[in-house]
Amino acid sequence: MAETFSVEVRITPRKGILDPEGETIARALENLGYEGVGAVRAGRLVRLEIDAGSPDEAHSAVRKMCEELIANPVIEDFEVRVEEGVEEDA
Amino acid sequence: MKFGIVRFPGSNCDQDVFRAVTEGLGREATYLWHKSHDLQGVDVVVLPGGFSYGDYLRAGAIARFSPIMREVVQFARDGGLTLGICNGFQVLCEARLLPGALVRNRSLRFRCVEVGVKVENAETPFTSAYEEGQRLVIPVAHGEGQYVADPATLDALEASDRVVFRYVDERGLATDAANPNGSARNIAGIINEAGNVLGVMPHPERVSLAALGNTDGLGVFVSLARAVARSDAEGLTAGGARPAGVGS
Fold first, then answer.
1. What's the whole-model pTM score?
2. ipTM of the complex in this document
3. Interface residue A16 vs chain B (CB under 8 A)
4. Chain A closest CA to B19's CA: distance in Å?
5. B86 noted as active-site residue
6. Are B62 and B25 a contacting pair, CB within 8 Å?
7. CATH number given to B2-236
8. Which option is the CATH number for A3-88: 3.30.70.330, 3.30.1280.10, 3.40.50.20, 3.40.50.2000?
9. Is residue B241 very low, low, confident or very high in pLDDT (cuts 50, 70, 90)?
């Protein structure tokens, strides 16, 4: 029976790709007097609800969506996390 | 011959391209609606600048899945001349017709400025009207124009003369100061392996009319018209001898 899963996708600039936004945040923190801040990477969070038969199924469905649209693998890494059973179908 | 200009929701340089083609070049142009599946028999497809689909998700990411893009991708794969300007370049990268990607300018600022652009390869259907090494002045207007690709891809592009345009200073040197967005190796425009798909961040269509005080960009459209005329001539003589003088 299909369940609705809440899935979170975290997208970050791929290693080796410059992240000007992250660098700017790091500089601003430094200007504000925060010490000890190392590398800062800024990304994007996409949360979606999806009907699937199992957490694994939800995971692989969203993974496919990431590869095709949600992320651009040329410049971005992504991480898919499934939170279980938000709302069960009656 | 006819140029087709794709209109996505959010395209805003479509009319500039139309006028560059019809007034600057004196050829026919037509708009291609994003929801259509009909390329109307055009000889050249232009993906114009703008903010297709509001640049949501990533610039060009949603436009890539527009209905018309199915035909555009097929047209390009079949060797059809395809030009992507600014947002159009971003769409071509997202559609994987060109390698790499365009990300946020290193300065994080939207840059709207005239830049020096050097023609690195004048032996393409998009640049034959220029001299190799010629320096043009063409405006850029973008927030996401920093070209990135892995070093192997960059090396391959350079080794095969596929870097067609580069940002340069007044002396023609590809310096950091001349680079408006932090693009890898000052890359402003690249061509695909087959040589029929060009992506370029600067806007040649904005400097293609004498009334605008600069026609440095017109050569792109002149080159395309020549390339189409040449392939038409070859088509007419297919199987026979090529008439002397054609293609020069």
1. 0.89
2. 0.79
3. yes
4. 34
5. yes
6. no
7. 3.40.50.880
8. 3.30.1280.10
9. very low
